[in-house]
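Lab notebook, bench 4. The sequencing result for the construct came back, and we need a structural model before the next group meeting so we can plan mutations. Quick request posted to the team channel:

Model the 3D structure of this chain.
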Amino acid sequence: MPPIMPTQSSHVAAPEALSQEELENQEFLAMHKRGDQKEIEGYYSKVLVEAAPLFDSYAGVMRPQFEFTTDPSIRTAAFYIDQNNQPRVKISYDYFNGKFLKVDPLNKYQAVHEYLHELTHFMDDSDFQRSLSNKCNELASVLVDKLVVKMKQKGVQLTNGKVSRLQQQIYGFYFSGYYNSILDIFVDHNIATLPEYSYDLAKNPNSKSEEIKKLKRRVLFKERDLSGDNKAKFRPYKFSRSSISSTQYTLFLLRGEGLPEEGMRVTEDVQEALSKSYKIKYQRQEARRGFDVPVEVEMNTKEMIDSLANPNSEAELIGNTRAKNLNGKKDTNIKYRHEYLDTTLLPTFTELLEKDMEGLLEDYDPANDEMFEKLMEILSV
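Done. Here's the predicted structure in token form:
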């Protein structure tokens, strides 16, 4: 009888233990899957409370108390001064949990960044930003009046109701398109002066800027090649808003500043608009001489952004300046920042937008209400 041989061990090596961050991420996803609003609000409240030292060093006395809201009129966050003259903010619950943006919920690094983003808008100059609504209405009114005259010359009469709706959509191109893009570029560059979100990973290896880039890719930049013949797509209104030249212009500015390593292809007319150079006259501060010296410089689009909206850039600062910005870096006062941009980039954007609207309205049939509704649908995306 042969000897009984010992059986081979059936032991299987245990998988490597998950890191603390991986365990936290698993619980984070499980929490959102459960969908308990109080639990989710509690999570984000804890994240923001734990980040209080960062907010205090960044904003000081301007750091507001926060609360979450499901008010549909608040899309991201709404800052205000309460009856005790204290700054407060209402944060959209659906913004943080991803429902508003139709993306995955914001992780803790993204949540802190987005809070800083909205806070920087508030700190930059909330009074000026509130005045933008009137300014955008004026810009939209001027452009619509020109379009109505051109339509009349072609024998097409728009009703007052349709003129009003068209103006509302063009207002959105200025407010949410052009101005919001320029403001966001400044805000995100300003946050990147913090080590926690610095783009310079060599100096700040613990920076979470890559987490913010992930969010930007999901939210803003699903298409990277918009170089098709957008004019051919105007008829019969079967194309996305990103085919419109003025939208491409602002998307390119946002991508170029937020994801510069990835690039973006746009149509030829947008390329030409982006390659423009502008002559700028201003008073250069000469501390050694004790007075300002009038100078004139020529700057392209990128140089304008670097000078006026990027505190991290080494580009020369132009305009009526203050020595430090919100975070101890160079800055241009927001009013003067837009005074220069409003005479350079804004007219370029308006030129593109006017041509876009002319192209969209070229074959418009006033008797075809369905065509007008399709046009409104495209412009409201």
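DSSP finds 13 helices and seven strands in the chain.
Will bring this to the meeting.
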